[in-house]
Amino acid sequence: MELLEQRKSGQEDASKLALVVEGGMMRGVITGGMVAQLETMGYGPDLFDLVVGTSAGAVNASYYIAKQAVQGVRVYPDYLGSKGFVDRLGWIKKRPIVNLDVLMDDIMEHEVPLKWDSVVTAHKLYMTTSDPFMAGTRVLEPSRTAKELKEGLRASCHVPLLAGKPIEIDGVPLYDGGLTAPLPIKEALDLGATHVLALSGRHLANWRSKQTVVERFVSRFYDLKYPGIDKAIRSGVETANSRRLLLQSQRSRSEDEPYIFLVDPKHDSEISQLEKDTSKIEAALILGQQAVEGLLS
Asked: 75 Cβ partners below 8 Å, 6+ apart?
């Protein structure tokens, strides 16, 4: 955080500072609240050399880079819970349970229009996806056009089985980056970051190290078509404990490399990934804001 404060005061340095933003479908409202609070308190995107977003975190990061984070986070309580983005009966109606068209083509174009060109011009947003052929995480480079940016966001947010047919990039179907890299700190370090500010929607002490029954089903289902993806997804969850211990040690040894600072809520939220209850969404948004406000005030 010292480097962030130095940059805010105008000091120059030779470091490479990354912002990492976690997603989680509707749980992404928590990190959405975090980036909105960063923006409100004057810690804008120009302070960071690169931003790495996963799933809904990539959407949050896009609004933040466009300097629209405060407006962008309102997407969750004002629109996503009520405009058909989540339809738990979608399969019965032969529709996706998670409808990315509602988010990308309606809300982000008309209700809360993203300044797509501003994100492209900044050239600092990296989006994580899960690549079945690599059996692991594929990081998409900063987009060159608004069309490419939208395709990347769709890929990073595409939840297998729930979101219909996946989008293909370079002929490869890509899926939600959160499957293999829910909090892509390693990916940021691999991109050359010397310092990382990571925003997580989960309280660090409560990170789970096992997949749910539904996640196991989805993982094994896709492994039938793409052998290796099940192992990659399982490793992303099962190594959570070692990653949690690393982050906890960094909190007590902040002067040691790699320089990683985690921002997490003071407790877990009741919000689910398919949440439609506006009051829970609003409460989760505030939880994210409070985590950053408490850190920087």
From this structure: 32, 59, 63, 103, 107, 108, 111, 112
Question: What single string gives the DSSP state of each residue in 82-134?
Answer: TSSSB-TTTTTTTS-SB-HHIIIIIIIIIIS---HHHHHHHT-EEEEEEETTT
Q: What is the pLDDT of residues 40-54, one digit of tens each?
A: 999 999 999 999 999
What's residue 209's pLDDT?
67
Residues 254-264: pLDDT tens digits?
A: 566 778 999 99
d(CA 20, CA 280): 24
Closest among 74, 62, 73, 292 to 198, alpha carbons compared: 292
Band of pLDDT at residue 180, cut at 50, 70 and 90: confident
- How far apart are the C-alpha atoms of 265 and 198, rounded to whole Å? 12
